[in-house]
Structures are given as C-alpha cells and as structure tokens.
Amino acid sequence: MPVVIMTSAVFFNLVNGPVNGYFLGNFAVYDLSWLLSPWFLCGIVVFLTGMYINISSDYKLINLRKPGETGYKIPYGGFFKWVSSPNIMGELIEWTGWGIMTLSLPTLSFTIWSWANLLPRTLDHHKWYKEKFGEEYPKERKAVIPRIL
C-alpha cells in the first residue's frame, strides 16, 4: 500500500471521527420524527445496502484461500462480478447513506472525504490486479463503480 494512501487514511480518521462525534454529541438536534423522515429512511436503506455489500465482499476475500494456501487469487462471485473492490464500494455506499441519514455539514464532509480517501485506493488496487494477473483478470470489471469506473 502506498504511504500516501496510508497517511491520508490516518489523517482522515484523526479529523473526521472527532468532528462528527463532537457535532452529533453537542450540536445535532434530531427529534424522534426524524427517524421517519424520507431523508433518514432513504439514508438507512443506502447505509444498510452498503454494509451488506461491504461485509459479504470481505467475507469472500477472507475465504479466498483454503487453509495452508499462499499466494494471490482473483476473487469471483458476488459483487466481484462487476468491480475489483466491492468491499470498498460497499463502504462508500455506507458513508453516503450516513450523510443522507444525518444531513449535516460534518457528515457531508465525512462522505466527501471518504470518497477522496478510498477512491484512489480502489483505483490503485484495480491497477495492481490487472498488472498481477494480466489476461486472466476479467476485462469487464471496473475498479469501484460498475460499468463506469
């Protein structure tokens, strides 16, 4: 993993976690009716969809090799049919849902920063897969957004 990506991830978490926590703990005012608002309901569906994609894709990656096997393999199945990094795609969908659920400047910045932090990582990961596996790697797979990027 490139140092710049690791450094940006650390910086991202050191800034965004406290900013969002401080805002939600000290300034946010959501009454119970917010839980039934279209924004919250849409956001929770988006968040849970992303969570499912993230967890199911991580599960596939964790179980890619049998016990005792070494080396790299091309993941297949699930959302790997469309993208090289569906776990990260799921995370981006999650944080987009979080931004929709809460509709605030800190969570909007969290969402934007998530994309700015994770998108270069997925592009680098996709490039690595293509270089590592060459012609074996599925040509129709995109990096993180099916059929687009």
TrEMBL record:
InterPro entries: 3-oxo-5_a-steroid_4-DH_C (IPR001104), SRD5A/TECR (IPR039357). The keyword NADP applies. The chain crosses the membrane at residues 32-55. It is found in: Endoplasmic reticulum membrane; Microsome membrane. Residues 1-149 form the 3-oxo-5-alpha-steroid 4-dehydrogenase C-terminal domain. The keyword Oxidoreductase applies. Its main location: endoplasmic reticulum. Keywords: Differentiation, Endoplasmic reticulum, Lipid metabolism, Membrane, Microsome, NADP, Oxidoreductase, Transmembrane, Transmembrane helix. This is 3-oxo-5-alpha-steroid 4-dehydrogenase C-terminal domain-containing protein. The lineage of its organism: Bacteria, Pseudomonadati, Bacteroidota, Flavobacteriia, Flavobacteriales.
